[in-house]
């Protein structure tokens, strides 16, 4: 357990230093915020260009804010694998260490999640205080529960993607970014999934992010997806919990198989970047 | 072999890597071409949710096409010399009996050709799946402005490649933050003029993307929501292209001279 905690701490500290470029908070906080804020401003301007119809901006804005966690949780560990293996050439030493790779990746994911949380906080505050968007009915317990279950599900998927990244030649970080884009389309982060063609909707229902965002929105009294409105709140939370368990199991299986196969294929110290 | 011949071969060789290598790995086709196109579709659905006119969906498609090229300029041009230094290629380029501009030109030409596939997929998605319609009469002019925009854009990328090299490890951070903020100030998904005149004018003065997109939209979709008249934007694009190419040459010389003085051409990870 001590070794596990030490490895998590190492992963956290190293990723923190790399991402902040060994700088002071004043030097990196603006860098961390500029992307999510600019992305949200695009959404705001799009709504403005279309005449700001009622009932759109609040669920889209807060959905987009929560979605900030998704690409980082999905791709953060894959980026760590690629960087440490191909750029810094350290991955083989981590894999050889007594605690293994997973706690190190967990620490790394935690550091990246803290950075995402900064963006989420600023976007929520901007929505509430600058744009005067309202959260009609906040239920803190449901909000916390939804938040935790969703993060567990998405971070687990991130571990599975990190396993796949071990086998993708070069630029595995592109893979993580691209998969984030697919979830952006399928989860109804910024538009109701009612608009998706009927044949695409099953894919949206199969995404844990869809249920996570729906659960988060309901826990603050917002609604966006008419197609999900007949499903009771408790059922949404139950489905999300089911997805969280499924994602944890899936991540364990995919990661173990990927790591074992990567060892056999000699991919732990491959340097294909370039 | 003459100097011209050597430089032409260098351009071809550097471009060849871009075109062939980018399409050699099948998984990249999925992750670099098909899946990012789906993210563009997300913005089309936003306009559908907003009940906006169909022209706005066409804005998104054209913005998505330019996104592909901007990403290539950022990661494949601006940050490239930094990666080349990390990999140990930069000092080899510097020793080769060719102009450094040939390497940059090769990267630009190869990048344009390689990225054309991704942008074609986005355009096809718009035309076939979302049934976006463009004014056929304006397509020839739009294509001309598009090529001019790419020249200016890749000129900017050539200039940035030297500057990013001077930023060192911070280059990746610059490249990362130049994504959504540039999409915002270039009006990738909404009319440029909605930014308000001061910001739109500042953006148009610095970013060929903003001017190019606005001009292409006016020619392919009609002049309804343009920021400046098309001929003004076209002239400004031509001026920006010349300026960036000139600056690229200057910054390249300055970077090389400084790196040689400081002995930093072969330093990794700094």
Bin the strand percentage of chain B. Answer: under 5%
What spatial form of chain B do the alpha-carbon principal axes imply?
globular
Q: Please tell me the total number of domains of chain A.
A: 1
What's the alpha carbon Rg of chain A, rounded to whole Å?
A: 19 Å
Structure description:
The complex is a heterodimer of chains A (274) and B (270). In chain A, helix 3 (57-67) runs antiparallel to helix 6 and helix 7 packs antiparallel against helix 8 (172-186). The model of chain A has no long low-confidence stretch (mean pLDDT 90). Chain A has one domain (2-265). Chain A is 73% helix and 0% strand. Chain A is an all-alpha fold. In chain B, helix 3 (54-78) runs antiparallel to helix 6 (100-129), helix 3 (54-78) packs antiparallel against helix 11 (208-221) and helix 7 (139-167) runs parallel beside helix 12. Chain B has one domain. Chain B has 270 residues and is an all-alpha fold. Chain A binds chain B through residues 21, 31, 34-36, 38-39, 41-43, 45-51, 53, 56, 60, 87-88, 168-171, 174-175, 177-179, 181-182, 184-185, 189-192, 195-196, 273-274, and chain B through 25, 27-28, 30-32, 35-36, 38-39, 41-43, 45-52, 56, 83, 86-87, 169-170, 173, 176-177, 179-181, 183-184, 188-191, 194-195, 269.
